[in-house]
Amino acid sequence: MSEDLLIAIDAGGTAVKVVAFDLQGTEFAAETADVETVHHADGRVERDVAAFWAGTVSALRRIVADCAGHRIAGIGCTGFGNGIFLVDEHGHGTRPGIVSVDHRAQPLVDALERDGEAEAIAAVTGNRIWGGQAVMQVAQLARTEPDVMARSRWALACKDLIRLRLTGEALTDPTEASGGGMMDIAHGGYATEAFARIGLTEHSHRLPPITASDAVAGRVSRQAAEETGLPEGTPVAGSMMDVAACALGAGAVDVPVLTMIAGTWSINSLESGPPKGCGVPILNMHYRGGEKRLIAEGSPCSAANLGWFLNHAMGGRVSVAEANERVECSPVAARRCQFLPYVFGPEPRRGGFVDMGAGDDLGTMLRAIYEGVAFQARRHAEDAVALAGKAFPPTIRLAGGAAKSPVWGQIFADICQRPVEAVRAAEVGALGAAICASVACGAYADLGAAARAMTGVARRHEPDPALARLYDDRFRSFRRLDEGMAALLEEAAR
């Protein structure tokens, strides 16, 4: 008898990954399609909708072939949140899609902050406003491209665009709506009061209905079946934004863990009730129903800095495996430079090595990169737990590119002085989407049961207490250097 499989589609910043999992969360097959993301000189970051869908179709056709002889029980979609795709009723783009690292709406955010409106908006949505936030992107497009808005039927997140093309149904889920700053966080539903403050009331009909992450949010249509090879009628789950899908795929369900995603972005989240601390987080998402929230802080300051250094500064002459070896051989207690992990922003910050000396070499520079990424994660994690009004959880669950490196996992443990568990899944966001699909298709009763059955830990790193003081000192130095450099760069930009 053939084994049932779940298909997960994960649309990232540079590629679409399609992964087949069995009902125990074991990866069965994986396919990838590179999708061009255009970085304009003025900071706009866009993706052609037709090419995006064509790449997704290509990867789906290959995964369906990989799964021949098995029943595809359900499909889940995830992807980067806080981008926006304006499309017609059939899901065809009315303009290029906007990726979340595009901050074209920052002038609007700045104006709302000057006018005192930002605080009132955040009080309704529960999320800090920022230039890449989905609700701000839509409001900016309404101001700058009214003709495009007029001929657009839907404003969708990337995963919801994929689901529309698969099923013909335009829907979103609570993590996407709340994490994009579009939901009334206390009462549910869309944030009509906030929309009125930013001029979005007349465009609110372009936002899709909200359905549960583990609900059936449509079924594969005949047209999509012909395009992709997927069986017609296969249920497609509401699913989650990638941040929430990663937490779910990491097994952060009813357990005292803090999830650190160290990939392109540093995303640090914990499951909570409504936040009880002072201030407003960058992500405050309705998560798994009821009063459950996922509170997160983050920035584009993570493991992608290493990829940039190896590919651009080193010209590809050093592999990731060689980098890991050099870091492991670089003495922890020796004096070395600091690295500010802001190659990809955010403004006004810029990446760079600071406090370099004659004793620094490639090994110390690489160790400084690994440490700088972990320092930034620690900073965001401390902010997230403070905003949630909770104690720092006793265990960290690590996912993303850094989780694949044992030496990096140990650095995270030593810097945070918490045990670090590297997740078992190589594609943790895709696994989260598959968990949503497993409930939607009836394989599990709820997300908690599915996550407990389908997730696991690959290895565990215990912190070295002897390094606590050393890393506390380096962390304080990192923060002072960061704040000083940011102030200098801001002054220079005036």
Description:
β1 (4-11) and β2 form a beta hairpin. The chain is globular. It is α+β, with helices and mostly antiparallel strands and 494 residues long. 39% of the residues lie in helices and 20% in strands. It has 17 helices and 20 strands. The longest helix has 27 residues, at 362-388.
The CATH superfamily of the largest domain turns out to be ATPase, nucleotide binding domain
Tell me the strand order in the biggest sheet.
14-15-13-12-18-19-20
The CATH architecture classification of the largest domain is 2-Layer Sandwich
Write down the overall mean pLDDT. Answer: 94
Distance from first to last alpha carbon = 68 Å
Count of alpha and pi helical runs: 17
Largest sheet: 7 strands, mixed
Descriptive key words:
39% helix, Nucleotidyltransferase, domain 5, 2 domains, 20% strand, 7-stranded mixed sheet, alpha+beta, 20 strands, 494 residues, 17 helices
Topology summary:
Blueprint: E1 4-11, E2 15-22, E3 27-34, E4 38-39, E5 45-47, H1 49-66, E6 71-79, E7 85-87, E8 97-98, H2 106-114, H3 117-125, H4 134-144, H5 146-150, E9 154-156, H6 158-167, H7 174-179, H8 192-197, E10 216-219, H9 222-228, E11 235-237, H10 242-249, E12 257-262, E13 266-272, E14 283-286, E15 293-299, H11 304-313, H12 320-329, E16 338-340, E17 352-354, H13 362-388, E18 395-399, H14 406-416, E19 420-423, H15 428-440, H16 447-454, E20 457-461, H17 468-493
Parallel strand pairs: 1-6, 12-18, 18-19
Antiparallel strand pairs: 1-2, 2-3, 4-5, 5-8, 7-9, 10-11, 12-13, 13-15, 14-15, 16-17, 19-20
